[in-house]
Amino acid sequence: MSLQDFQLELLAPARTAEIGIEAVNHGADAVYIGGPGFGARSSADNSIADIERLVAHAHRFNSRIFVTMNTILRDDELEPARKQAWQLYEAGVDALIVQDMGLLAIDMPPLQLHASTQTDIRTPEKARFLQDVGLSQIVLARELTARQIAAIRAATDPEKCTLEFFIHGALCVAYSGQCYISAAHTGRSANRGECSQACRLPYQVVDDKGRFVAHDKHVLSMKDNNQSENLAALVDAGIRSFKIEGRYKDMGYVKNITAHYRKLLDRLIEDRQYSDQPLARSSSGSTTFTFEPDPNQNFNREFTDYFVQGRQIDIGAFDSPKNPGQPIGYVTKVNPDSVELELNDHSKALSNGDGLCYYDLQKELVGLAINRAEAINAAKGLWRVFPKDPLPGLKDLRKGVEVNRNRDVNWTRVLDKKSSDRRIGVWAVLAETDGGMALTLTDEDGFTATASTSLPLELAKDAASALDTLRANVSKMGTTIFAALDVQVQFSQPWFVPASVLNPLRREAVEALERARTQGFVRLAPGHVVEPPVAYPEDTLSYLANVFNQAAHGFYAKHGVKVIAPAYEAIEELGEVSLMITKHCVRFSLSLCPKQAKGVTGVQGQVKAEPLQLINGKEKLTLRFDCKPCEMHVVGKMKTGVANQSRLELLEAAQGVPMTFHKTRPKQEFGH
After folding, report:
1. CA dihedral of 121, 582, 642, 637, whole degrees rounded to 10
2. I want to staple 171 with a disulfide (CB 3.0 to 4.6 A). Which of 32, 222, 263, 317 is the partner?
3. CA angle, 583 then 588 then 592, to 5°
4. DSSP 128-187
């Protein structure tokens, strides 16, 4: 095995270059960020200049910058995408994250390409294929178990392909790349960065007789991902890149969550330093924080570890897609203009600007923002708060209601300031020379730089403390990226070195070491493409393969696929199809699964196994259940108006030249 197989990469998100810089400062080994276009977060784009600035900062620590170009592309977008890729290469980025296989068939720069979550990697066969066509890093489906991940690792080569996995953040309920509800209902394609998030809406769930199974529940809304307890298991399964979701998230989220996982991974690395397979971080330096990271402080829908340890029944955030926060206390009295509370922990305090919330009688979350907080008796945890909104508008607020805090203004203020310090360790040697002295710095990556100066040598007046003073002064690395691990003074006698000489000598040595690191930085090598071309695991592709341009069509044909249907976005699937495929099962979560009900009298008779229907206003979707792989299909069809408008936009973009594909498509069948 290579050294790379034991390196762990903490991969953090960035909406902007500024957030990316702080992700690096808070311990990220790599950062993923959107470029000027073609990223799957349509409002999180960044200029080439900003990307270049982020790259320069990240590379100081040997951290890497990955840019998302993970939408599916029309034919007219391939050339602009190619040009953007070359601009990003010239800006110094380390890899592009892609979904569209058409990019593998055009003139791309010599950059690593990583497979986006949108490529929907669930099987060893697909993972091996993507490795063999040159993808150097692949992010696996969030729905996989540790055992399934290990099977993919066994089928791939760790020296050719790194396995990446989401460890934190919002969960898309669908297999990524396999959701078309937004495209069908609004014309906004999730595969093109414009998801309307139908999964976060409330639905009525009814059976085939129209009877209510669930009322106004967010049955497609998942809790947030949190793999804090599973990091060791994921390492053992073969994951080496640990990805935090959140290219829409704010600075405080990225600082806090990056710091949280930095500490957990560092602890794991330390625990295994003497094992047969010692681990290491993939970038340089170490990070300290001015705060104690806490994932509960950021927006979350409560947490789940999803399927890593097997199917769980409590993965859904069915009551609300909002942040419920943490329990803080109970209402003791409601006044005309204020609310009195007793806090669970009397050592806690409330502050002006805090955000509180509670559930009303319909189990909907109601926000209660504090305009002013007063301690009635802080020692007994008694507080009076004056809400920003009029009390009559706070539905079902009454004595005894449990209240959560979902925004701690004091916590937010801590993260508004400088909250981390990342340093690269150096060993320093100050030695006398024939005409003066030289300072040599060697960093933890093995880079070395020397600065020298002429100086008439004279003995220090206080010989006993001279060496200690010199060591202390050499150690003063100030605001640089370095921290002195050890300082050796190699003098034949205790010479006096004035600060006016030592300070510029140290600055010169530090600058020289930074230059040496920059000159010695090695870009990631592109992946190895197996020749002759390997065969794709299937010879027929439906719209689910998201083939949206002729280059992608040619790519799959080159790899042995005989029938290639166009992407759903090509507006050719006008009948009922699977608009979402998901491992989440509404029937299971509502305790209506036939496997759950086996042996329980009457359950299957009360609610028919299928179909179930989801209703939100005028929108209706059908749920069908494929029990063999234990998957749910959300079935529907594209609105006529949406289809007509989308077709016009496609024709305009293609200048009247529509895409042509094979017309034969496999029929979908659902097992029971």
Report:
1. 120
2. 222
3. 150
4. HHHHHTTEEEEEPPTT--HHHHHHHHHHS-TTT-EEEEEEEE---SSPTT-B-HHHHHHS
Instruction: Specify the pLDDT at position 44.
Output: 80
**Which run of H or of E encompasses 341?**
strand 339-343
Looking at the DSSP bridge assignments, the partners of residue 162 are 137
Closest CA to 544 of 523, 560, 564: 564
The token duo for 638 is 């594209």
Q: Indicate the range of 277-286, 319-328, 625-634, 659-668 predicted with least confidence.
A: 659-668
Q: Per residue in 98-131, is it b (16+ CB within 10 Å) or e — as a string?
A: bbbbbbbbbebeebbbbbbbbbbbbbbebbbbbb
CA distances from 35 to 14, 17, 177, 557, 585 (A): 11, 10, 20, 30, 35
Q: How far apart are CA 127 and CA 129, in angstroms?
A: 5
pLDDT tens for each residue of 414-438: 999 999 999 999 999 999 999 899 9
∠ CA 650-653-658, nearest 5°, is 55
pLDDT at 592: 86
> Per the omega criterion (within 30 degrees of 0), is the bond before 324 cis?
no
Q: Which pLDDT band holds residue 600 (cuts at 50, 70, 90)?
A: very low
Cis peptide before 110 (omega within 30 of 0): no
Domains within the chain, CATH numbers bracketed = 3-170+224-289+291-297 (3.20.20.70), 172-221+537-672 (no CATH), 322-416 (2.40.10.170), 424-520 (no CATH)
SS3 268: helix
Where would I find the H helices in 463-569? 463-474, 499-520, 550-558
* Per-residue pLDDT reduced to its tens digit, 203-229: 999 998 889 999 999 999 999 999 999
Q: Which of 128, 123, 127, 157 is nearest to 143 (CA)?
A: 123
394 contacts 365 by C-beta, under 8 angstroms: no
For the chain, what percent of residues have pLDDT higher than 90? 88
Predicted local distance difference test score (pLDDT) of residue 42: 75
Residue listed under structure tokens 């070359």 = 86
Give dist(CA 357, CA 370) in Å, integer: 10
Tokens of 510: 């530090």
User: What does the pLDDT read at residue 2?
Assistant: 56
